[in-house]
Write a structure and sequence with these properties.
Helix 4 runs parallel beside helix 5. The chain has 8 helices and 8 strands; from the N terminus they run βαβαβαβαβαβαβαβα.
Length: 225
């Protein structure tokens, strides 16, 4: 499991790129995906410049997902692009692949404030992804509450718990990824339906970032575990 490959679709954005840095530094194979191949390749070069030993490469989203069959495919795109991205790579997903949903239905998708969320008929973005994934392909919710700026700060720990929800076996595979990010701790969040509670915490943290003037981003800890 430690060497399980990871594809990060939307890995050219700050949060996805931050995850790519962290996983690459932990010597995990990383495939960065983007709608534009050149952007993905440039992101891979950025990672290699910081982590010379990295096994990292840039691809279009479909190619990145295909290259990671049997591994973990992370959807690191805004909520409004999540469904389209998942549909575009659907044929590359196999039952031994785990799909990770990390988007949050922030109200920015409809021109409102980032500190609020919009309703999703399925209950959460993660459950929406589960409804769109091929039959037998597990979907897990994770990483919504990790600050992009903290992830990008190489060499510094990310002080935040990661609540991971989804099918038991797939959930365990995603929880193992947290060991690659110093300072994080995986919390067993139970079934995927609990993602609806985790996603809204992101909007709360965004509001806290503004009120407490913390542009680097706040995090959460679950105590007494």
């Amino acid at each position: 499991m430690a060497s399980e490959a990871v594809a990060i679709l939307g890995g050219t954005g700050d949060q996805g790129l931050g995850l790519a840095y962290r996983f690459a530094a932990a010597r995990r194979p990383v495939r960065i995906g983007s709608r534009k191949l050149e952007r993905a390749q440039n992101a891979a070069k950025e990672v290699l410049a910081q982590v010379p030993h990295a096994d990292v490469s840039g691809h279009d989203n479909l190619e990145a997902a295909t290259a990671t069959q049997g591994g973990i495919v992370i959807l690191s795109v805004p909520f409004e692009h999540t469904a389209a991205t998942l549909r575009a790579v659907r044929n590359a997903l196999t039952p031994d692949t785990v799909v990770v949903s990390m988007a949050v239905p922030l109200a920015t998708a409809i021109g409102d404030a980032a500190a609020r969320v919009v309703g999703v008929a399925q209950g959460s973005c993660a459950e929406l992804c589960a409804s769109l994934a091929p039959e037998g392909v597990p979907v897990v919710s994770a990483f919504q509450n990790l600050s992009a700026q903290r992830l990008l700060a190489q060499g510094e720990p990310v002080e935040c718990d990661v609540i991971v929800s989804g099918p038991k076996e797939a959930r365990a595979r995603v929880m193992a990824l947290c060991g690659d990010i110093p300072g994080t701790r995986a919390i067993n969040g139970g079934p995927l339906s609990n993602a609806r509670y985790v996603e809204v915490l992101t909007a709360l943290l965004i509001g806290l970032n503004g009120r407490y003037k913390c542009p680097e981003g706040t995090g959460i800890r679950v105590t007494y575990i």
